[in-house]
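can u do me a favor
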């Protein structure tokens, strides 16, 4: 009887830990996306430090011809050869920014942007 109870408790604890770890991983990913998108918004509105502005290039400035893509607020992702390079801001920042719906990057006010970004990330992750 004690062994059966112990096994039940251990399996319940293991299941709870698995759920907690998967939830915390999701929360961490959402927090990182929020921070990356906020930094990209600050770059887009001209409020970011110059060293961050220098690492990101807009699609409109990267093309010499007038293309339909130049009318968007997308940014160019720097190409990398390794997974480690994909963790850099010059790649992950534009990747997060380009994944936003088209109405979010057009918001100018930072507080309004944060509120809408939180709502978007919450519904994407937990709905």
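np, heres the sequence
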């Amino acid at each position: 009887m004690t062994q059966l109870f112990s096994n039940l408790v251990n399996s319940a604890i293991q299941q709870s830990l698995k759920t907690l770890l998967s939830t915390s991983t999701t929360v961490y990913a959402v927090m990182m996306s929020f921070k990356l998108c906020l930094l990209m918004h600050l770059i887009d509105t001209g409020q970011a430090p110059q060293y961050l502005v220098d690492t990101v290039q807009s699609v409109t400035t990267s093309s010499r011809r007038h293309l339909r893509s130049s009318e968007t607020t997308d940014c160019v992702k720097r190409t990398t050869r390794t997974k480690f390079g994909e963790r850099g801001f010059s790649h992950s920042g534009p990747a997060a920014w380009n994944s936003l719906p088209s109405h979010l990057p057009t918001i100018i006010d930072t507080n309004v942007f944060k509120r809408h970004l939180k709502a978007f990330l919450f519904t994407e992750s937990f709905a």
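DSSP finds six helices and two strands in the chain. hope that helps!!
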